[in-house]
Specification:
The protein is mainly alpha-helical and 57 residues long. The chain has two helices and no strands.
Length: 57
Amino acid sequence: MSMGAYDEDEHERREQQASRVDADFDDERTIYHGQVEYDSGDSAEALLNKFEEIKSN
């Protein structure tokens, strides 16, 4: 079968698989404890200066 060719059996199999509902999972939310920190890095101007420096080399 060539790439992109229509396969009716595969289409039907995927439709059946997508229409099934899996209710066997645990429906409890996971609670996380801790901290999140973000490093915003250098300013935009400093990054542009660094880029120009790299580009000139």
